[in-house]
Automatic annotation (TrEMBL), chains A, B:
Transmembrane segments: none annotated. Keywords: Aminotransferase, Isomerase, Transferase. Residues 12-158 form the SIS domain. This is Sugar isomerase.
Length: 333, 333
């Protein structure tokens, strides 16, 4: 277990110790953008001094918020570091005098070299073995933000975060066992579905977004949308019938009752066999501080849902991570 | 043409003249939430002193941002004023010491009475005749924000806004003529579609969101998602084939090139007959200041798209504004 945040994060934050940072821009695209949502949730809940925005890389560059300047910290993320929009966003932020920290698997990548500081993280799909959760994209992002809050306003949750991150992998391993049979059943049930929605709120919303756009749409060519659990009741719920298919995340943050309400509606007006519910109350979160459970549950949901994606791909006869029409096949768009 | 912002907005802003407002929360649900996105875009582009967040009503209450307090202005909106989550959000914000302004058709409604100040707006579907655009929800929101920026930091775009709003209705009327034949053709083409996506960025994103969740999903029971024009390339675009159906908005704000890029991709890998493009360059925007065209184009798109919704409903044999399964039919969810 780590007893302090990673050295590169420590050094990046030390470099802005004397700068009055008031605003954090969290900038990325697609799956990397999805982790920024719980990052903002964490900031909203813990900081009274820092405001923040979450933007897609190209939206950030073209929108060019007037606020962006020397008192801004811009945290950017791209798995490979080759996402053009995000690398451009780093250059744009630097030109405006903001301080930039890039998160990427590859510090030598275009994004890694475009930012003033680079923080490497790991992904188990490249290492081939389970990684320390503190070294994942979520883990690194939470460390940057917890370290920043400690530095800027003296609110210190770093110990609790590190302790909780060290207990995450065992919780993920146990979660896989909890969901295995359920995923088999739902993969068969969802095998012909033309549309599957995901549904979440609060710290879980990013995981629901990522699963909708990167897994269902990108890898399985299934139509989808990540529906916010309360927005659901202001339009989207009218598509619900007995055949409507949903993946519902019920987490442990302050917005839990929104997710419960949506699940209850779906159970009542949809069919239980078409509503795949992941409820964090079913999980063994031993060692994860109660204050951090809400923030780490989406990592557990997302990690376990990969198994569901593979099972669903089997049922549909597609090959996940390989079958693509455009991404990395066509380069001139 | 108005030469000054509405009296009730003027009075609401005067009440916070001596308060140091630093942050604006824009809070609502569903269709009313959708207008908050261009509101934030306007703030981002014009203000260096004010930060802002856009939240669904119940997300706002449960997330309970630590920043929320006496230096916050919370602008809330609900058409009927009966949206429970939004009325609760007003009460929550007041309890935290924030200043609250409610926008609603009905000042005597629960939301209207929950906030410290209420600003009434109008909608043509209740008045039965076209309204002055300055009295619409978008118009009133822009006036609040432009008035606030003038008061807080001396940036004055109020004249330009009012002049532009006065030229909006003629532009809308002419836009209907531009789109009439196109909407006929696409209503027939889309009549059997199980899924139709909307696509936009920047100031248009709210209109795309509202059309996806309130029109396609709520009123027509068509599966949908409002896809951000650059996020499109980071997952969603893999669902595109020759049959995929999209409504693309191409506006006049700083993010236009994102929307153009997505349209170009759809024209190339989808089919032109399945991609309904609304390009603001086709419109006659006479009298609307160039600086405000980007902010007012989404009102034109949304207003004209209602016609498309009715035509599509005719083709599908559904009755728009009446056919509902749950909303206002079942009350105990």
């Amino acid at each position: 277990m780590k007893t302090e945040i990673n050295q590169d994060i420590h050094a990046a934050l030390a470099a802005i110790k004397d700068r009055k940072i008031t605003h954090v821009f969290l900038v990325a695209c697609g799956g990397s953008l999805s982790i920024m949502h719980p990052g903002k949730y964490f900031l909203d809940r813990h900081s009274s001094a820092l405001t923040s925005d979450v933007y897609n890389g190209d939206e950030f560059v073209t929108r060019d918020p007037r606020k962006l300047g020397p008192s801004s910290l811009v945290v950017l993320c791209s798995q490979t570091g080759t996402t053009k929009e995000t690398a451009r966003a780093a250059a744009h932020a630097r030109a405006k005098g903001a301080f930039t920290i890039a998160m990427t698997l590859d510090p030598a990548s275009p994004l890694g070299t475009a930012a003033e500081r680079v923080v490497a993280y790991q992904a188990s799909y490249t290492t081939g073995v389970p990684i320390d959760a503190a070294d994942s994209n979520y883990g690194v992002l939470y460390m940057i933000l917890a370290g920043l809050i400690r530095q800027v306003e003296g609110v210190d949750v770093v110990d609790s975060l590190l302790k909780s991150l060290s207990a995450l992998q065992p919780a993920i391993d146990k979660a896989h066992l909890v969901y295995a049979d359920r995923f088999d059943a739902f993969a068969a049930q969802f095998s012909q579905a033309p549309v599957i929605y995901t549904l979440a709120s609060g710290a879980n919303y990013g995981a629901a977004y990522s699963f909708a756009i990167c897994v269902f749409m990108e890898m399985l060519w299934i139509n989808s949308q990540a529906i916010h659990a309360d927005e659901f009741f202001h339009g989207p719920f009218e598509v619900v019938d007995k055949d409507a298919k949903f993946v519902c995340m019920i987490g442990l943050d302050e917005t839990r009752r929104l997710e419960e309400r949506a699940r209850d509606f779906l159970y009542r007006f949809g069919s239980k066999e078409n509503v795949l519910v992941l409820d964090a109350r079913e999980l063994d979160l031993d060692g994860i501080d109660e204050a951090f459970q809400g923030y780490l549950v989406p990592l557990i949901f997302f990690d376990t849902l990969w198994k569901f994606a593979y099972k669903l791909a089997d049922q549909r006869g597609t090959v996940i991570l390989e079958d693509r029409r455009y991404m990395k096949k066509i380069s001139d768009y």
